[in-house]
Structure of FtsK domain-containing protein:
Amino acid sequence: MSWAAFITPVVMAGALWLMTRSPYSLAFAALGPVGAVLSLVEGRRGGGRERRAAFAERAEELDRLRERIAGAHDRLRRELLRRARGAAAAIDGLDGPVLWKGEETVVSLGRGSVASGLVISGDARDTDELELQRAAARLDDAPVLADPVEGVAVCGPGVLARAYLRGLLVQLYTALPPGRLAPPDLADAAGRARGEWDWLDRLPHQVGAAGIGPRLGVFAEARLVPPGFRTVVTLASPLAAIVEHYPGPKAGGAARGRDHEPLEASVVPELVSLSEAARIAAALAVRAAGLGLGAATRSLPGEVAFGDLPAAGGPRLAASIGRTLHGVAEIDLVSDGPHAVVAGVTGSGKSELLVTWVAGIVSGRTSDEVVVLLVDFKGGTAFRPLAALPHVVGVVTDLAHGEAARALSSLSAELRRREAELARLGVRDVADARGALPRLVIVVDEFAAMIDAFPDFGPLFADIAARGRALGIHLILATQRPAGVMRDALVANCPLRLSLRVQSDADSRWVVGTDAASRLSAATPGRCILSIDGATTEVQVARTAAADLAGLAAATPPAAPPRRPWLDPLPEVLTRADLSARATPQVVGVADLPEQQRRAMLEFQPEQAPLVVLGAARSGKSSLLRLLADASTVESVIVGADREQAWDAVEAAAERCEDPEARAEPGLLLAVDDADALCARLGDEYAVVWCDRLARVLRDGPAAGVYPVVAAQRQTGPLRGALGLARETVLLRQQSKQDHVLAGAAAELWDEGMPAGGGVWRGRRVQFLAPPPHLETFAGVRASAGGEPPSPVQLVPPQGSATVVVSRSPARIVARARAAGLPPESLVDLTRPAEPGALTPEALLADGHLPVGVLLVGDPEAWMGRWSLFATLKSRHTVVFSGCDAADVRALTRSRVLPPPLAPGTGSGWLVLTDGRMRRCVLTAA
């Protein structure tokens, strides 16, 4: 009722009272409030009835909607149960009709809440409607599904996690039949080590089947789970687990089993014991045998003989290597390769696999069709049985790194040679060459060890892998752990993979893409997983006996010896008879050029000097000097170990270098042997001067026609600076690899067993000719037995002459002079007081004419005391230093010139001429 209806009667009653002044008129004023109250009461009674009717109708509609939601939820639960029944239901249905009737690789992780997929449209107006929308979207007590192919990681205590994971595997392998599932990619090294997953081997789902491989793993904590697992289940207790889903890659559409995401993280897990899992595997094997499915009908043999395999033959490189569940395992390096990777730990049968594979490749083929190069970095024993095959062009081992380096370096030249040959034939592939080039198979055992020893071979093998298919070169690379060793560029060209037993899942996945190789038993050597373009098969490799190889060699049709991809090593002894007929007398050896697959003759011309030869004892230094002298086109002088000879020869050469007219003289080859030993024998003072003169000869000699060649064991002391002036260095065998490298040679050319005459020159391994045994057979070569012969000085001077003698043993000189017949009046001994009437030096100087020959003798101290007298006598008469050292000579003569060295034990001394020159001399009695 409106306020107007309530107020109108009151207003009219007031107007009537004003006109009539009757109190009855005021009674009309009460009609408005009374009517308003009555109308309000009646309106409220009618509105309550309508609201109660509306509320009742809405409640009925919500109940009907709840029933529809519950029905939809029940249908969804049944659908989820149909897709994944759970472990308990899978075990109960082992003998039922639903075994192996599954269509998806999904499993139930347990009961929990998931998204139902139901949506109630419209805006919720109250709490009941909001709760109903949430209840519709939520499916409680439903199986939480996951796809093991996308990766399921189980975290928690090992015993609990493995029991839970066994439940997932039981679901999977009872849902899908043999042939639909590959072996699981199982990350649990500790469990396999204890044999907790051996029951999987008894499942009828054959190993290596071309089916879907689930990926599962056991980890202690969620933070340890590597990438690649989309679902992580953390077991808090045997009754509760927490599930976490992670988004997968966007490519390829939605993942299977992802249409019902979990709403709550908690599920109730199902656990299966190890004994129960073993029982289930045995029951499945029996059921498969009855139905004729999978591996239950046959198994791989534990051993296969190569003689029982048929020869593959054919124009390519097909080879029978063993047996699979389906028959003979045959692989072809040409169609399945062109290159292969083989992995396997020690004792897994890797070497036996390589031997069998090589035997299969050459079986029924001649060396005109295929040749094999074997590289064994385990000492050379693995491939020893194959060496007798006519197809094998060489076995390279790590026992001689120099040989390994040169053989492998030759492969670059082989690539170039094959390219040139194909270009000559006008074809682009060896398959079109009509047999002009045999295919070359390079087998490397312990590839990782080879790369460690020769890092530069990594790019070489990558190059071979990239270009080998067209050139007919194929690689079989074997190692224990290929991951991290082989470059991506190399592995990309190796689609053919074989993995025997390896240590870890990661190694197995790296090679063949699954964990199967890490689960192979150590009790069955030769069992491997073969992967060709990702498809895997389990193979038992055949064992090849020595008789099998002998039979292959005997059955191979005769053919010309195959061309080797590298030449034989240089001989230890090289003679002129080994050279070609076109070798000139100047040829002194040959150089090894493995990267060009040839040898080059080395010629020596004097103009190549100055030349230094470094080598250890008995490395052939002296023989090489004689050889160079024999090959020289100029006169040669060989300086040996004699100190006097070495001093005189180098001094004469140094003087010739200072002579401007020396260019007109005939050339001279100066060969100095054992220069470092000569320095040691000369002593420090003489060595410094001698090395300085030798440096002058090395620097200026060729311009003056002197061509020096110096040999030494080491560059030490003052000799180092002199030898550094040489134009070239020949490095013979050194004491150690360190000395070899410090001398400037490449480390790979170091050879501890390098023969005499073998060395490194101009960066090449060389072998010099063995010289004739005797020096006198060399034409135009002279070598004096000593230096310049000493000048004789008589102890009894001729009449009218005087001889001055300085000696540290003057008494001995006096005794020798008297024994030689020198009269007393002709002897002046400065070490004794002068007798009355005896001849004195002063009287000798006062009288210019001597009546007799006079001998003046004194020690250095006595002459130093009368130095002015000595200086006067030195300018007029002969002075002899006998039994003194160079310091005495330089002190008394006041000269910086070092006297020539004296050979010990010869009794020679120094003669100082009046013009100051010094030479060797000897005091004689006559």
